[in-house]
Amino acid sequence: MAAKKTVSLGKEISKGLILENPVLRLILGTCPTLAVTTSVKNGLGMGIAATFVLLGSNLVISLLRRVIPDKVRIPAFITVIAGFVTIIQLLMEALVPSLNESLGIFIPLITVNCIILARAEMFPSKHAVLPSLAEGLGMGAGYTAALILMGTIREIIGNGTFFDLGIPGLQAGGYIEPMLIMILPPGGFFVFGILIALANKLSDKAGKETQEDDTICAGAISDQTACLLCGGCSFGRSGVQNQLQADEGVRRMAGKAKPDKSGDGGDNA
Amino acid sequence: MKEMLIILFSAILVDNFVLSKFLGICPFLGVSKNLKTAMGMSMAVIFVMVLATAITWPVFYLLLAPYDLGYLQTVIFILVIAALVQLIETFLKKALPPLYQALGIYLPLITTNCAILGVAILNIDQAYGFGESMINSLGAGLGFMLALFLFSGVRSKVDHADVPRFFKGLPITLVSAALVSIAFFGFKGLIENLFS
To answer: What is the pTM of this model?
Structure first.
């Protein structure tokens, strides 16, 4: 952590985009990733909404990092995040009602999106305002990029359109019929699986220098944070040798969960 | 009665929370590795889902709606759920130690499970009455359990299969989840015929 404090703002932004892409590398926030990427537009909308919440909550949490007592930090973070989610919810309802309609329940559910809570725990609660904003921006951009990528693949194959514009030859009656299954739930699981495999392969080629600390899971999490089981940790960054880490994670969580209750039970919330 | 059954079964099978609504994917991927943890987690989820609905529904209709505070829904619900989980945990530890042993370690993980907040919000969105909301939550929880139960079986096979190196772990899990999800399409149209 100490080394990170000197890291440049630019690097904080760019790491979220590729090396620590929250979706493809850290595997955080899987639910909305799978659910809303039926089209590029939805993916983009969701990405922007999440980025807004990420920036806002990173800013506020970083400002309050010396004020929030350690024991109630998770509830405090959740409240801050929920506040920003409410703001974006009202904004979207007023400005882009149709998008709001199609994202539906996943807008309020940004509150429990692990990307935001996990990052709040990892970064802004320990860093000054500017780096926190930069890293929020990077994470948000990485999230948006991944959502757009998935949305593009699913929309083109599943619907024969890109951003609602028809692609000649891919429409019904063209060379290739749209494969409806891709915009249905199974397509989401499938495309996501393929993309992660691809990301594993590419990062493997680029060398192992992305390996970090000895934390169980780089995407999240101290022992107490509830996000531990958010997939992020059970699989972690390099998909291949993580079986042990996952078991270790569950064990540590289990061991931790019991003695903790008396002292800082509030953390688990 | 018929409506109740329809709500219950469509929540379990057709609109399965995990496989067709994409809620609670994280625990679905995280704890489906073996049957025992999967069942423990599902029991905890059902338990908290039903209790959370029993509290958030009255909170919304008795506190928020009359005073035009509907926009506070997200903030209030997540705080209620967080507090509830904490309470349940403390209560179980004191009053029902065996149950605490069984569910204890899963409870802290549940606050950030989007299925819980999701079901609370969906019940309001769908304008369900109290009884319907409770049935819907129960169905959602049972559906979660069913998905986890089936999938932990699939995974125990997949984990021993010889898949390409980059597919090991999460990618192959997701691809098999896609197949299980296709299987659940078989239930589409079942409900209308079942009770007609």
So the answer is: 0.80
8 A C-beta contact, residue B37 and residue A49: no
Q: Do B20 and A190 touch (CB under 8 A)?
A: no
Per-residue pLDDT 10s for chain B (196 aa) are 788 888 898 889 888 888 888 888 878 887 777 788 788 888 888 989 999 999 999 999 999 989 888 888 999 999 898 888 888 888 888 888 887 887 767 777 777 788 899 999 999 999 999 999 999 999 999 999 999 999 998 988 888 888 888 888 788 889 999 999 998 888 887 777 777 6
* Side chain identity, residue A47: G
Minimum distance, in Å, between the CA of residue A10 and any CA atom of chain B = 30
Length of chain A: 269
Distance from C-alpha of A18 to C-alpha of B114, rounded to nearest angstrom: 26
Phi and psi at A165, nearest 5°, equal -95, 135
Say yes or no: B66 contacts chain A, CB-CB below 8 A: no
Chain B residues whose CB is inside 8 A of the A234 CB are 29-30, 33, 170
Nearest Cα neighbor of B27 from B120, B105, B128 is: B105
Rounded to 5°, angle at Cα A107 from A101 and A110: 165
CA distance B191 to B194: 5
Pairs of CB atoms within 8 A across A/B: 186
Look at the alpha carbons of B141, A216, B101, B94 in this order and tell me if their dihedral is positive or negative.
Answer: negative
Domain ranges, ordered by start, for chain B: 2-194
Contacts with B, A 141-160, CB within 8 Å: none
